[in-house]
Write a structure and sequence with these properties.
It is a single chain. The protein is mostly beta strands. 2% of the residues lie in helices and 46% in strands. Strands 2-34-33-32 form a 4-stranded antiparallel beta sheet, with no helix packed on it. Strands 3-4-5-6 form a 4-stranded antiparallel beta sheet, with no helix packed on it. A 4-stranded antiparallel beta sheet has the order 7-8-9-10, with no helix packed on it. A hairpin with a 5-residue loop joins β5 and β6. The chain is globular. Keywords: Cell outer membrane, Lipoprotein, Membrane, Palmitate, Signal. It comes from Mesopusillimonas faecipullorum.
């Protein structure tokens, strides 16, 4: 598994790190034949859930960790690197509209059902109304590799200079920006922001979570998930990955080469617990547990209130799993061969799987009340039913 690393604008970008990054992501940089890094073969299991494809639709070409589907008001939204943005009926997969824009996209998609936003490779932020017409187009202060967050009347992006910027959802006017110092190196992998109760919650490359008022950009809280350690820039990478998880008053985040940490936001963001952990994809959660695959794709569950380990599942080791999507019977993850696997929430036992094809699944799956949306490597969007 290869994860790209980028330096901020002030540092030379073309440093040759590919071999080292592959090693950091859990692959051998010395030999692809090292058994420690070989993906586990698929094993037999006693089926405990029915996993079926309800519908599939083409939403463009390509995919990537910077692309994730969104859902709002019974509609699904997706974007692909070739500049295609699509709205679909969540129940049937019928395409309502599809826009093809230039230049190619670097991240997408975010939507609240009124405004749908994507980011282009030149730093442009492009917003559409819910009929697929372009509303506005503006520029961020740098390249954006994280899907925009849309809600509370704003479109929020985080650019490569570690600046979080908000634009008016109707006009595209810049409203506020918040910037924090960044590390010398940052991991380019799956990361998302959320807007909840008028707050923008975002991870930062320095192992922190930040909560910002969506309307005025006021910083309401910052919490330390992980502290960078090590003698080199590579060893000190401790980026927040995936989407911050909010369950009632509890907010959780996970870092690469760091920790899983949960906070009680009802008590001023006081840390509840932390567990040493390293993930490149992020967390899933319910009101009982948080779930995550580590760098070697061993899936773990921890009690959300105490951090006590609940179970671990190693049968999918090195299969380059996505972040988990939590559904009623279990948690769903995608892998490097286009399979989706369902694990029991109670003990991590394998319950079911199916293959979507289209290459590696790297976009985070999204749980909805109709099933789980999975964006494939070939540019298809599928709704998976789990019963």
């Amino acid at each position: 598994m290869s994860k790209r690393i980028h330096r901020p604008l002030r540092v030379i970008r073309n440093l040759a790190l590919s071999a080292t990054v592959a090693a950091l992501a859990g692959c051998s940089m010395f030999s692809s034949k090292d058994a420690r890094y070989e993906p586990s073969p698929l094993t037999e299991y006693a089926p405990g859930a029915s996993v079926n494809v309800i519908w599939t639709a083409s939403v463009g070409r390509g995919s990537g960790s910077s692309f994730a589907p969104a859902v709002a008001g019974g509609w699904a939204y997706a974007a692909t690197p070739n500049g295609t943005v699509t709205k679909l009926d969540l129940s049937s997969g019928a395409i309502q509209w599809q826009a093809n824009i230039s230049p190619d996209l670097s991240a997408g998609v975010g939507s609240d059902g009124q405004t749908t936003a994507v980011a282009a490779v030149d730093g442009s932020i492009i917003a559409f109304d819910d009929n697929g017409n372009e509303k506005w187009r503006t520029r961020a202060t740098g390249r954006v590799d994280i899907p925009p967050a849309v809600g509370a009347g704003v479109v929020v992006v985080r650019s490569s200079d570690y600046r979080i910027q908000a634009f008016d959802a109707e006009t595209g006017e810049a409203i506020w920006n918040v910037q924090r110092p960044g590390p010398a190196l940052a991991l380019k992998t799956n990361m998302r922001m959320i807007i909840i109760e008028g707050l923008v919650i975002s991870g930062l490359p320095n192992g922190r979570l930040i909560a910002i008022g969506a309307q005025d950009g006021s910083v309401q809280w910052e919490g330390i998930v992980s502290i960078s350690r090590g003698a080199t820039d590579l060893e000190r990478i401790s980026d927040i990955v995936g989407e911050p998880q909010a369950q009632g008053p509890i907010l959780c985040g996970v870092a690469y080469q760091g920790n899983i940490t949960c906070f009680n936001v009802a008590q001023g963001g006081y840390p509840l617990w932390e567990q040493p952990f390293s993930s490149t994809t992020g967390l899933g959660s319910d009101r009982v547990n948080v779930y995550a695959a580590n760098q070697t794709s061993v899936v773990h569950a921890f009690q959300i209130e105490t951090g006590e380990p609940t179970w671990s599942q190693a049968d999918l080791r090195n299969r380059r799993l996505t972040s988990p999507a939590v559904v009623a019977p279990g948690i769903l993850v995608g892998d490097y061969q286009g399979y989706v696997h369902v694990l029991a929430r109670t003990d991590g036992a394998l319950l079911g799987r199916t293959q979507l094809g289209g290459g590696a699944i790297v976009s985070p799956p999204l749980a909805t009340d109709r099933g789980v949306l999975v964006q494939t490597g070939s540019g298809n969007l599928a709704l998976i039913g789990v019963n």
